[in-house]
User: Fold this.
Amino acid sequence: MDPTAPNRVASVGHRQTGPRWDRRTADLLAGSAQLTDEGTQLATADFAGWLAHRGREHASSVRRIDFTDLKGWHFLGQTGNLVHQSGRFFTVEGLRVRTSAGLFPEWHQPIIRQPEVGILGILAKEFDGVLHFLMQAKMEPGNPNLLQLSPTVQATRSNYTRAHRGSPVRYVEYFTGPRRGRVLADVLQSEHGSWFYRKHNRNVIVETRDEVPPHPDFCWLTLGQLHELLQRDNVVNMDSRTVLSSLPAAADGPDRRPARALSPDTEVLSWLTEQRSTHDWTIAPVPLAGLPDWHRTEREITRGDGRFFDVVAVAVDAASREVPSWTQPLIEPHGEGVTAFLVHDFDGVPHVLAHARMEGGLPLVVEVAPTVQCVPENHPADKRPRYLDQVLAARPAQVRYSARHSEEGGRFRNAVSRYLLVDADEALAAEPLAPEYAWLSVRQLERLTGAGLSVNVQARTLLTCLRSMAKPVPAADDKGW
Amino acid sequence: MDPTAPNRVASVGHRQTGPRWDRRTADLLAGSAQLTDEGTQLATADFAGWLAHRGREHASSVRRIDFTDLKGWHFLGQTGNLVHQSGRFFTVEGLRVRTSAGLFPEWHQPIIRQPEVGILGILAKEFDGVLHFLMQAKMEPGNPNLLQLSPTVQATRSNYTRAHRGSPVRYVEYFTGPRRGRVLADVLQSEHGSWFYRKHNRNVIVETRDEVPPHPDFCWLTLGQLHELLQRDNVVNMDSRTVLSSLPAAADGPDRRPARALSPDTEVLSWLTEQRSTHDWTIAPVPLAGLPDWHRTEREITRGDGRFFDVVAVAVDAASREVPSWTQPLIEPHGEGVTAFLVHDFDGVPHVLAHARMEGGLPLVVEVAPTVQCVPENHPADKRPRYLDQVLAARPAQVRYSARHSEEGGRFRNAVSRYLLVDADEALAAEPLAPEYAWLSVRQLERLTGAGLSVNVQARTLLTCLRSMAKPVPAADDKGW
Assistant:
């Protein structure tokens, strides 16, 4: 990027004002969401075949290895931290959390540090008047099925500044230079606060009018097609889900927003602010060596009691990545997660039951999270997370959405959760709430998501799933979806 | 605070939806802004006399002392960090900043660490149909004139949990418990990023209908009266200025917001996001002992070249504080600052020239800052900060606002800046901008401020000053003020 180039904010409309909100975006998104069966390039029915074909083109294998078989990675003598010899990519260190909140006043854990802001970017373009999104079939070693659908660009700074001397990142110029298109969304969002230390990425969607050179690993899909694919297990990867969550509401704009909710927006922001300032915490990186409760074997860093996660190492042989083969550490959680929002329509306006959740690695420590976010086996029967039993006991008719999705396959191995949207019955919806819970309208969840660094990545996935089920309705009838 | 009490978001309107935006707030604020000469309690003309009287009631003295005369404070043996024996309040440590941005790839500096979220709270109440704000005459040792007007509550957690075993903080129950009133604003805001490490406070305004017990150090003032007092030097303290900046725009609400600006809101957010992700930085607390370029004498920690600031110690004798006398460290900058927005009306819509500024201690490293923010003497003639000369050369007719204000007097000593709003002429307004600058409408600056942790404390002071000059206009004529 040329730092001397005049920026877009400066150069567009430098003398003339224009509207602060653009209805064209809302109309384009609504139109794109309506096409669920086919776009201009690939029918939804042909998608699985296309992805399988890409998989055969890039036959890949991933296997667990000993730490001593890592190439370029080693444990530092003094701290025991796991680092790359280039000093880049990421490191695995220790974290100590002390807090006045919750049941555990102090704990230690390994955590990934990667102090750089990556780009998760989706390129959008109109074909025949319908907005399409350029998605990539991307192999990541931690995905249970290796190949999933990623954003157009999914790159750490190390990637796109080519610290690893690999191939250039395809299409990255649409996101880093003086832009060629119109920005639909561009916001910082946190990543997993239990496994990353203060990591956040730029989530950006740019619409171009250029001819975009095709590539066999990429395909253009409508928003409706992406919504269809979100009904399937392990197809749309985490990075795609979070970027899509940052899109403005399909029917947005100041005169189109449903103006009703259980609580005014000011009270919702106040609730989050209060939850962020009610407790003390001291969070500090510490050496990985000698981390209390954890020990290192030849093949893993583990607690040994089967809870939470291990740090492991893998060897990757893949033809489709910028670098053809490599080794790296990954975090591997134990057990399948349950990630769910309880949902309820109040006066016909859909709401979710949000949890202000503290995670040691979040940039601002507390963010809005799903009602339930846990691996059930981690919790003894007498200390079940709140609302877990209600979610698991839901009758089929109460389950509005259910699919398995996996987390960032570049850092996490087999990190799969059941993502659920479960109807809360009237009795549950009328129960008083503990201070860290609140009913937010879907629009309020969207607003907090659009502000950045306020809604965690699991809740953002669920927001994308929520939207994937919405029937587009005329703006006049819009009740909040 | 009782953590088991049902929260407000849960308990208010639990079954029924209501409007997400409340016009009553906008109307109350507009009405309160119109009364500039008198409220129901104290005429503006009598304010100076009242404050002087409070000063005589609380005769205070502050004097510089040697570090060895600090009581309860000492330098830790190993790190040389300056700490309090209770382990609370704050510490003075070292900070190392490495960055790919700007002229200086690495620097070291002392910095204040205070890992707790304080409360800056203003209580509001209607008298005779006009909203008044409860302000406090508060002595702070770093203020050049000691006594200034502070929010109703200005308390660190150490204060209001009574870590120092002093008196309880008056009126704090309006902000920490299940609230007695209606929230007008409640948002986290950063403090000085050059002097504090990741410090942020809760900025909160609550409207009560209770009878509020009076106290001679407190007075009720209208928004118009506060605006009048902001025209004077060193009266309205930093904490008051930042809390007032968090108020919603007087004519807010989705159908009242001026919908025009030079750039759409999406582009403005994109500009800030890009500026937050364009550069690498590594920011780490380091020991104060042996900090490169700095050394410690008996009376100060200093660079010795007269630039930036010193760490000093003072003894305070004051009757009005929760604790009658104490000693403490303070940061004392060298020279008077210049803090200015260039402003320009495009198509009649007022805009400010914003700077995406990196400060080592900011929670998210980059925030929106004034066009100019510096102490001119720190910069050699050949490395003048951009736009400083244009601001200093402004003709009187171009200066829309000018007053001296001081920064947080509980931590900073004689930290005074000239706060300026300077008209940019047509030629300057038409110049191309470097990527880290952008013209934002005042409403866009307000929106970013309302989101929290996006606009730095100096720019928030200037926003409050901007609003203090606005003539209230009927909503139909509203062009953006």
